[in-house]
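Re: weekly structure request thread

Next one in the queue (96 aa):
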Amino acid sequence: MAVKPLEDRVLVKPVEAESKTASGIYLPESSKEKPVKGRVVSTGPGKRLDNGKRAEMSVKNGDTVVYGKYAGTEVEIKGEKHLILRESELLGVIEG
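Done, posted below.
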């Protein structure tokens, strides 16, 4: 099953937070925060402008992005959690 986002939406697979601190202490499941970064799996064609053309998306497949803690809609695809967000809900792209 493939999901192709519509308009200016982006399909993101959240990157889970580390379960161990830098000093080697394992964190319990209850203390982990909700993920705020993920990898772009698929993008829509872009928002349609007033002149009928589409705006170019500023992210592409494979980009690692940062988004708001409660942004987007959670969906399950092939047993894995994903998020569908509008491009405007993305806060930034992690480079490097």
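The first strand starts at residue 9 and ends at 14. Strands lie at 9-14, 37-43, 64-67, 73-77, 80-86, 90-94.
Next request, please.
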